C-alpha cells in the first residue's frame, strides 16, 4: 500500500499542512483530425472529456497540452481558449495530451474538511 498524500488538520478543522507525492498517472497523447470525436466540456475552469473513451483517454481526463504547449485551465499557454481553438478546422491536425488533473487548493481544503468530519464523528463514538 502506498501513501499518496498527507493532510494535517487541527481540531477546529483547518488545514495546517498538506503534502502530495504527485506522480503523473497514465497520460495519453493522440493526434486528431477534424471533427474531434471526443466531447469536451468546461467544468471547474478545466476542459474535461465528457463523452468518448478511447485509446487510454477516459471520461474525466483533462486537456493538459495542445501541440506541445501546456494548457492552464481553459486557456492555452499563448492565451487562446481551448474550446474555441479546437472548434476551428484550420487548426487541425492537432496533437492533444490528456491526463488526470491535479487537485486545486480549494479541492484540497474540501478534502481535508471531510477528514475532519470523519474524525469528529469517530472520536465522539469511541
From TrEMBL:
Superkingdom, natural source: Eukaryota
One Gene Ontology term, aspect cellular component: TRAPP complex
Localisation: Endoplasmic reticulum; Golgi apparatus, cis-Golgi network
InterPro entries: TRAPPC
Keyword terms: Endoplasmic reticulum, ER-Golgi transport, Golgi apparatus, Transport
Subunit composition and interactions: Part of the multisubunit transport protein particle (TRAPP) complex.
Family the entry assigns: Belongs to the TRAPP small subunits family.
Designated name of the protein: Trafficking protein particle complex subunit
